[in-house]
Design brief:
The structure holds three protein chains of three kinds.
Chain A lengths: L1 H17 L5 E5 L4 H15 L3 E5 L2 H9 L5 E4 L5 H7 L1 E16 L9 E2 L1 H9 L8 H6 L11 E5 L4 H13 L1 H6 L12 E3 L1 H11 L3 E6 H6 L3 E2 L1 E3 L5 E2 L3 H10 L24 E9 L5 H17 L1 H6 L7 H14 L3
Parallel strand pairs in A: 1-2, 1-3, 5-10, 6-7, 6-8
Antiparallel strand pairs in A: 3-12, 4-8, 4-9, 4-12, 10-11
Helix pairs in contact in A: 5-7
Chain B lengths: L2 H7 L3 H51 L21 H32 L2 H16 L2 H28 L5 H4 L9 H24 L4 H9 L4 H30 L2 H6 L17 H8 L5 H37 L1
Chain C lengths: L2 H39 L5 H5 L13 H32 L4 H14 L3 H16 L4 H26 L2 H9 L4 H12 L1 H16 L3 H4 L19 H8 L5 H34 L1
Helix pairs in contact in C: 1-12, 3-6, 3-9, 4-6, 5-6, 6-9, 7-8, 9-12, 11-12
Classes of the chains: A alpha/beta, B mainly alpha, C mainly alpha.
């Protein structure tokens, strides 16, 4: 029992030293969780203020902020302006991420295989069943494709990653839009469901002749063979930070009310088409003004000092022009 | 405890009455406390059923009984279309395959432990099997995902697929492509997880066989196998089945291990090497990102699972109770 | 030799080897799982695991302190709520209501709760506590664990009190001891080892539970002792870390898995040793 008593005592001491700092609470999307937790850790070291972010999913995050049980909510899908007005909330994009298609094919190098949204849609619909299908061969005339069945790998759990992927497929493949649509969990016509990005990455790397989609960080960390994608401008682009940022820069943030922009399939010759932003939601008239001001301070700090950390984790920081707009929104729209 | 002081105070006649009163009060209080706690067990069950029904109500109203035989699971459709057939099928198939593996092995171990094993080895082997039941289910999940899954996908599955290729029926059950997220892999993990339950209960009920019966059989020259088959198993049949049902109840509801390796596909496919899903895996992987009807539908799945396990476990208990009565007589 | 005799002998030998094979099959799994855990987990166990909190992604230092302490706290509170309740309920079943109709109903229901899927318990607490309270909390996690503890303790308490010989009770009653004191001072004392065994087994059962915590206590990146907020705990932390792309998180997950398995197995073995003592007495 002494052992337990010591541990509890040690815990109490630790808690009493940190209990004075104002903790900001937020809840929502799982997609930006690694980034927010990295920022929170650095922010705590710098200012002593902690940020408790619960990655419980976009839907649950929206519910929590509407119910005002948290200071901010986070969602991978922007809310429609009408809905924001109804709840008295504002939203802004805090960071961006990109997805890449990954394959496991013998003799194929990263970036060698080229896809289009329509082609990916047909593969995920189960219409294209073999790698040497003429539709794939047409886009990849120089690549030697095996006559093997395609194993389609996708997420089994609901997630913002799936939302970005299915939203892209819906925009580029009419049949996909009609049959599966876009959402954090959809009715998959085919495929093996794996848990989390890690599950998809692991399954693709283990299963020959498979295809999957993961956040860029997972493809990089697991050294998976990613594919290039043809964007809206008809150009073939490789997944690079530059291409991801081009997608964000070409998006019409200024013209969109409440930053309601879904970043997939953006115009621009250099834009990577499977890019998504993750949004923060806050009340215009927060119940706890002090906590709300603290949260804004954190996000301001993140825009100023968090870019490098974001890039380290393969997220994409918001362009400066957008950050300026967001800061204006803060000062005009949130009552402190 | 307060007893010492009570006893000491009980010196004079007046104090004696007071002490007796205190005794009585303590007695009655204790009785009611224990009774209240016992009844709280019922309240918990009531609470579980009530909260599941309340949570599932929107889905029940929306889908009605069709929920049971709809295969489509489209939470992002507007309005969402949800059906339980896929998860229910996966739950039943994985449990049945798991039992097909675990029953012979579990009984074999029980026979080994009670009839064949040298005495000094009984405790260590028995303990090892029981410890299998102690390993947390998330550990089974990790192990299945990182070790067992890749092994099966690269070795066992291709072998089975090539052996049964072209054979009618079996050829479609063992169809490719191999995957380390599949119904079969989940079943194998489940089998390992429920093995100790079958073994433990079988060992317990085998011990209820009166030694006289076994000795008589050995006396007329029966072999060990004949004693087991003709004396032990018939005598304990009800209890063994009870143990199997108990293990089945476990298999039906197991969550974390299955979630890791089943591949969460709501589509029903004929091959057991194809991905599938179970009720508990569907809840564990989708609940966090669900809301509205989707969440309600998941809770309705939970209610179905609870009803399913309730009946299986109830049957198991009734059978075990019958054996206990028999042993009591 | 008589052919029937030969085939009987042969069948017997075959079955014996099959049974031996089954036993080896079972023991092999335990060995394989433990080997994997030690192989992957041992490298990650160091002093920092116990003294530092869970790191942000991409870091190469940090430990599991908040998760370990969170798990200890939630398990202790869960058992602290569940064990006394289960103990009293089991007492009622064994001592007062032995032949009641109510008792047989409660015993039956308890046995079903004993094997109820733990994810259902998670859904129950989500609906009954998390939704009305407006958020995830460590307290909700504790309650979920308590609900799992109760039936285990009820069952063992009833069984163990049933093993206390009746003459003990009768002797005490004959001396004028009230019923409640007979139970508390005679029966409990005689069954003490067994009762502790039950509580240990219940602790072992909940210490590694993940599913009921997923929608209740959730997890927390930082150290927290506030029961009204989310709290870090080992199983959920392992679940999150092992599926990440970050090598250090994975290493921590395996270290945590090794720790939790060893703890649970130690509790199990402890309970069994205690239980064996009771029998040999």
């Amino acid at each position: 029992m002494n052992f337990v008593r010591t541990i509890v005592a040690a815990g109490l001491v630790a808690a009493s030293t940190s209990a004075f700092a104002a903790d900001i609470t937020g809840a929502g999307a799982t997609f930006p969780f690694p980034l927010y937790s990295k920022w929170a850790d650095a922010y705590k070291k710098e200012t002593g203020n902690g940020l408790n972010y619960q990655s419980i999913g976009s839907g649950a995050g929206i519910k929590q902020i509407v119910a005002k049980t948290v200071t901010f909510g986070a969602s991978d899908m922007p809310l429609k302006p009408e809905q924001l007005d109804k709840e008295g909330m504002i939203q802004w994009p805090q960071a961006m991420g990109a997805l890449v298609p990954v394959v496991n094919l013998e003799g194929i190098k990263p970036g060698e295989l080229v896809f289009s949204g329509e082609l990916l849609g047909d593969i995920y619909l189960g219409k294209i069943k073999k790698w040497d299908d003429p539709a794939i061969a047409k886009l990849n005339p120089k690549v030697k494709l095996p006559s093997e069945a395609i194993t389609v790998v996708r997420r089994s759990d609901g997630s913002g990653t799936t939302f970005i992927w299915t939203d892209y497929l819906s925009k580029t493949n009419a049949e996909w839009k009609a049959k599966a649509g876009s959402g954090t969990a959809v009715e998959w016509p085919t495929g093996v469901g794996a848990k989390g990005n890690e599950g998809v990455a692991g399954n693709v790397s283990q299963t020959k002749n498979s295809i999957g989609y993961v956040e860029y960080a997972y493809a990089k960390q697991n050294k998976l063979t990613y594919g290039a994608v043809i964007n809206k401008a008809g150009k073939t682009v490789q997944p690079t930070i530059g291409a991801f940022q081009a997608a964000a820069a070409n998006a019409d943030w200024a013209g969109a009310k409440n930053y309601f922009v879904i970043l997939t399939d953006q115009p621009g010759e250099a834009s990577w088409p499977i890019t998504g932003a993750t949004f923060i939601l806050m009340h215009r008239e927060p119940a706890d003004k002090a906590a709300s001001a603290e949260a804004i301070k954190f996000f301001k700090w993140a825009f100023e000092k968090g870019d490098k950390m974001a890039e380290e984790l393969d997220y994409i920081p918001m362009p400066d022009s957008v950050v300026k707009m967001i800061e204006k929104t803060w000062s005009s729209d949130i009552k402190s | 405890m307060a007893v010492e002081s009570d006893v000491m105070e009980a010196a004079g006649p007046y104090d004696r009455a007071r002490a007796l009163g205190a005794f009585k009060f303590g007695d009655v209080t204790f009785y009611w406390i224990t009774r209240a706690c016992a009844i709280s067990v019922l309240l918990i069950l009531g609470g579980i059923i009530l909260s599941l029904i309340i949570g599932a109500w929107p889905a029940i109203r929306e889908y009605g009984a069709a929920f049971l035989w709809t295969q489509r699971w489209a939470p992002s459709a507007d309005p969402p279309v949800l059906g339980a057939l896929g998860p229910v099928y996966g739950t039943l198939v994985t449990s049945v395959i798991a039992m097909m593996i675990a029953i012979p092995v579990g009984l074999g171990i029980a026979v080994f432990l009670t009839e064949i094993c040298p005495l000094w080895l009984r405790r260590p082997i028995g303990l090892a099997i029981e410890l299998l039941a102690g390993i947390p289910s998330i550990i089974y999940g990790m192990w299945g995902f990182f070790v067992l899954g890749p092994f099966l996908a690269n070795n066992f599955q291709p072998f089975m697929i090539s052996v049964f290729d072209g054979v009618p029926v079996l050829g479609t059950i063992f169809a490719g492509p191999p995957s380390y997220l599949s119904l079969f892999n989940a079943s194998l993990i489940l089998a390992i997880m429920v093995l100790p339950f079958i073994t433990a209960i079988s060992v317990d009920v085998f011990k209820t066989v009166p030694p006289v019966l076994k000795e008589a059989a050995y006396g007329v020259g029966c072999t060990t196998w004949e004693v087991v088959r003709n004396v032990v198993i018939p005598y304990t049949r009800v209890g063994v089945i009870g143990g199997i049902m108990l293990a089945l109840g476990r298999a039906l509801g197991e969550t974390m291990a299955v979630t890791f390796i089943i591949g969460n596909s709501f589509k029903i496919q004929s091959s057991i090497f194809a991905p599938g899903t179970t009720i508990s895996a569907a809840i564990a992987s989708e609940f966090a990102e669900s809301d509205g009807l989707h969440q309600s539908g998941l809770i309705l799945l939970g209610l179905l699972l609870f009803v399913l396990t309730f009946f299986v476990l109830a049957a198991a208990r009734l059978m075990l109770m019958r054996l206990e009565q028999k042993a009591g007589n | 030799m008589n052919p029937i005799y030969v085939s009987r002998r042969r069948n017997n030998v075959i079955v014996k080897y099959l049974c031996l094979g089954a036993a080896l099959f079972g023991v092999t799994w335990l060995a394989l799982i433990l080997f994997t855990l030690f192989f992957n987990g041992l490298a990650g166990i160091n002093f920092a695991v116990f003294t530092q909190d869970t790191p942000p992604p991409g870091s190469t230092d940090g430990g599991l302190r908040n998760a370990i302490i969170g798990s200890i706290i939630m398990t202790m509170i869960g058992v602290g709520i569940g064990a006394p309740l289960g103990l009293f309920a089991g007492t009622y079943l064994a001592e007062y209501g032995k032949h009641d109709k109510l008792t047989s109903v409660i015993r039956f229901i308890n046995d079903i709760l004993l094997s109820a899927p733990s994810i259902i318990i998670g859904l129950f607490i989500y609906g009954a506590i998390v939704v009305p309270m407006g958020g995830f909390s460590a307290f909700a996690g504790c309650l979920a664990l308590a609900v799992i503890v109760i039936p285990v303790v009820v069952r063992t308490t009833e069984d163990m009190l049933g093993l206390v010989p009746n003459p003990l009770r009768e002797a005490a009653s004959a001396l004028g001891m009230p019923r409640s004191l007979v139970i508390r001072r005679i029966a409990y004392r005689a069954a003490r080892a067994g009762l502790i065994t039950g509580v240990l087994l219940a602790t072992a059962r909940v210490a590694g539970e993940t599913a009921p915590l997923l929608f209740t206590a959730l997890s927390n990146q930082f150290f927290s002792l506030d029961l009204t907020k989310t709290m870090a705990n080992l199983p959920v932390t392992i679940n999150n870390f092992v599926q990440s792309p970050y090598a250090y998180w994975k290493q921590l997950a395996w270290a945590g898995a090794l720790l939790i398995t060893l703890t649970v197995l130690a509790l199990n073995i402890g309970a069994r040793i205690l239980g064996a003592e009771r029998i040999s007495k």
